[in-house]
Every structure is written in C-alpha cells, then in structure tokens.
Amino acid sequence: MMHFRIAALFALLLPMAQGSDPAVTFNRDIRPIFSDKCYTCHGPDTANRKTKLRFEIESGAKIQLAGKRMAIVPGDPSNSEVYRRVVSDDPVVRMPPDYMGREKLTDREIKLIGRWIEQGAQWERHWSLIPPLKPATPTAHETGWARNPMYNFVLETFGVRRSEALSGSQPPYFDPARQPGFGGSAAHAG
Ligand code: HEC
Predict the structure, then answer these.
(1) pTM for this structure?
(2) Residues of the domain holding 159
(3) Which of 84, 99, 139, 185 sits in a 20 to 30 Å window from 1, CA-based?
(4) C-alpha 130 to ligand 1 mean position (Å)
(5) Residues 67 and 35 in one domain
(6) How many structural domains are present in the chain?
(7) Whole-angstrom Cα distance, residue 130 to residue 57?
C-alpha cells in the first residue's frame, strides 16, 4: 500500500515539475543538443572540425569569429552567431547545414538554445566531474509519517504545490483527509 501511495505522489508531482518554467540547465538541456547535433563537425575530433568553433569546451564555443561576430553573447541571442545559425531558414546559413544533408533543429531545441543564451549562457562541467551535493532535508510537518528523509522531500513538494494549483481540481482519488500534510493522519499508512 505504501508503495502505491508513493507512486501516486510521484505521478502527481511529475507534471508539476514540467509545468513550471525552470531555468535552462547546460548539462541537462544544452550539452545533449551540442553533442548530438553539432559535435560531428564542431567537436573533439580535430580531423572533422570545420572551423575553430568547438562545442565540447567552453573556451572553444565562446569565441570571436570572422568579422568581429561572437559565437555566443551571453544574454543576447540575436547577436550570437550560434543562435542566428540554428534559427535561420536560409539553407546557406542554417546550422546544422542543409548543404551537408542535416536536418534543422527542432523548435524545442532552438528555443532551449535561445533561452540558455538569454539566461546568461552558463556553462557547466561535465556532470561526471561535479561532486554530488547533499541537499538539506526539509522539515516534515507530520514527522510520524516520514520513515526516511525521502519522505520529507515528497511531503514538502506535495504540501507546497497542490494538484489543484495546476488542474483547478483534485484528482478523483485525492482525499485530503487521508493525506499527511493536509490534515489527514498517518494512521492509514502501510
Ligand atoms: C555536418 C557538419 C556540421 C554540423 C553537424 C554543424 N556544423 Fe556548424 N559549420 C559547419 C561548416 C562546414 C561551417 C563553415 C561554413 C559555414 O560557416 O557555413 C560551420 C560553421 C558554423 C558556425 C560559424 C562559425 C564561423 O567560424 O563563422 C556556427 C556558429 C556553427 N557552425 C554552429 C553550429 C551549431 C550550433 C551546430 C549544431 C546545432 C552546427 N554548427 C552543426 C558544419 C557543421
């Protein structure tokens, strides 16, 4: 039973996380685009590299190009050659290049790159090099229910953002009287 309830909580929390408009994260959102769609010609492989532009390291991506153009101007997508190239519909300009048989990036990918540059084009080290951080455990309002720290995280998020904030109504199986944190008791757990 308990496992079912936890699964139900996550099923509710997932769309909430997606519904908000979180900051674009380099490792999660941008690095995969560069590596899937750009590395072949602007990546670690020197033999394949088409220009000095390379996207696997920050110093290779944020460079000045011919004619004083900048590849990436943090905060300014329209003056960033990278953005100008991926958003373009001109087959001569667009990257990945139409003239080499490559598809245009998806709207979602283009928007992510634009928003990333707009938000300051923060680079991150590869995730495998970043030491994991242990976040502080939130205080649970009903400590009797929480069996281990994971429960505190679930309770905190669930208590702060209720499902009705998103959908305007509660899911049919949602019974506040049975939910810890909503005045329900822990007696039903398990
Ligand atoms: C199949 C090879 C290929 C792929 C994949 C590719 N490019 Fe290019 N890129 C080129 C070539 C060739 C040039 C040089 C000719 C030109 O400017 O069109 C270039 C030039 C550029 C330039 C201008 C660089 C300069 O020195 O002026 C930018 C910016 C750029 N690419 C961005 C991207 C981005 C971003 C991606 C991925 C979304 C990408 N490219 C994917 C081949 C590629």
Answers:
(1) 0.68
(2) 2-21+135-188
(3) 139
(4) 29
(5) yes
(6) 2
(7) 15
